[in-house]
Amino acid sequence: MSLAKEEAAAGGLTYEEYLLIPDDGRRHELIGGEHYVTPAPTTVHQRFLGRLYRILSAFVYEHNLGEIFFAPVDVVLSRRDVVQPDLIFLSQARLGRLTRENVQGAPDLVVEVISEASRRLDRKLKRALYANHDVLEYWIADPELKICEVYRRDEENRLVKVAEYEDAGTLTSSLFPGLAIDLTSLW
Q1: Which residues contact 60 (CB under 8 A, 6 or more apart)?
Q2: N or C: the chain end with fewer CB closer than 10 Å?
Q3: Other CB atoms within 10 A of residue 105 CB
Q4: What is this structure's pTM?
């Protein structure tokens, strides 16, 4: 079966069709060709994300590790999988995936700051999507509940939960050698 026939049989939207969606201030994403829309983030979400971005960005820049981006930036995992994670990290080894318009392929790190509106999407659908597309680490942060979960690739290349922090803790990652993030400073 040709690629065009396979995609027609699969149904759903493609990246080209996604680009035609009008900008309405909400987050639009495709997972398996299905269109998902979430409302603009809360100030609690933005405060947490801003603090995390400042810490990671300064460390990555100082150590020339790669680049950090925050939403909105399209991460094109396939023609039918386009997401806008809250924050991504591309190591030097993966900077070739960065184009002027988007990121073509999986980042090293994806961070999603969840809310009531995005809980199922981030915890189930996106976690499975990132597991299938070579994301090395996935952090899910819930600033309302003050919980952060960390998923990493294991020896069998599965994305598995390796840590969960509630209220406090020190988050570390082999992606950022020598960095220790005090989670209480983020909440």
Answers
A1: 66, 67, 68, 89, 176
A2: N
A3: 17
A4: 0.89
